[in-house]
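Students often ask why inverse folding is considered easier than folding. One informal answer: many sequences map to the same fold, so there is more than one right answer. In these notes we will look at a single instance of the problem. The structure comes first.
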């Protein structure tokens, strides 16, 4: 995946941190043809994330942020609005160019063609490294080495992602539809990362964890667009048609006032 944010399910851990070089190269291209849907239908981060980071790691607006795997810039926006200087590090050309266009009004956003393993940032230049769901696709050892190189001595690392909830009947049926109609989803969904993997990544420092509620409101088109923004969703063909028909069936069963709530847990890990 283009270091953009894949969606994972709350209550399940996301996929493991990839170490295979060929897989890593393929992952950087996973979202090249889904940029438009990604921009329109992916969730923002809760505004409260800035207050949490202020309390947990002393974030202030003078600190320099490296958003590693910044994708279309969704994860950079809270820091830009907090007046931080943000380096958006993204290897996928289409995603990176989308961020440059979408965030053009922010003079404090600097786009970088780089990756978690080779950020192209100077030594000891960053106060806080932020990684969204793209973290699940990093080469763990190489990215940890790179983070240690670019991070200031008293710097911090923050991992955060919007994990799809399965607490409602609607979202349970959504999850079951993915399992039934998308063969790749079974593979992606079970490449699990454990809490121990995150703790190990932060070692020898201790980890703090927080959870925030988050949600989107969709009509039918939005629900379909949300699914099509995922790299594992078939773009065309019989399976695509069956999946979209199932989405419509689920939507019609649970919509209220031609809207549906799509819920997340925003999971935050700080060191």
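Output (designed amino acids):
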């Amino acid at each position: 995946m283009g270091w953009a944010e894949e969606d994972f399910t709350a209550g399940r851990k996301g996929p493991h941190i990839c170490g295979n070089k060929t897989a890593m190269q393929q992952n950087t291209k996973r979202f090249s043809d889904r940029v438009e849907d990604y921009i329109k239908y992916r969730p923002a981060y809760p505004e409260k994330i800035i207050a949490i980071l202020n309390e947990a790691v002393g974030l202030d607006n003078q600190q320099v942020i490296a958003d590693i795997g910044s994708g279309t810039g969704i994860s950079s926006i809270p820091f830009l609005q907090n007046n931080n200087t943000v380096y958006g590090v993204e290897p996928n050309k289409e995603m990176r160019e989308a961020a440059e266009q979408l965030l053009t009004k922010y003079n404090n956003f600097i786009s970088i063609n780089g990756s978690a393993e080779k950020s192209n940032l100077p030594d000891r230049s960053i106060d806080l490294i932020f990684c969204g769901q793209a973290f699940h696709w990093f080469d763990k050892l190489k990215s940890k080495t790179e983070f240690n190189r670019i991070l200031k001595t008293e710097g911090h690392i923050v991992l955060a992602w919007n994990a799809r909830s399965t607490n409602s009947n609607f979202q349970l049926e959504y999850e079951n539809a993915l399992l039934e109609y998308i063969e790749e989803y079974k593979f992606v969904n079970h490449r699990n990362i454990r809490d121990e993997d995150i703790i190990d990544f932060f070692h020898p420092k201790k980890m703090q964890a927080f959870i925030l509620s988050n949600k989107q409101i969709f009509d039918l088109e939005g629900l379909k667009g949300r699914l099509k923004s995922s790299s594992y969703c078939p773009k065309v063909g019989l399976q695509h048609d069956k999946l979209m028909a199932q989405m419509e069936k689920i939507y019609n069963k649970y919509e209220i006032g031609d809207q549906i709530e799509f819920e997340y847990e925003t999971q935050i890990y700080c060191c």
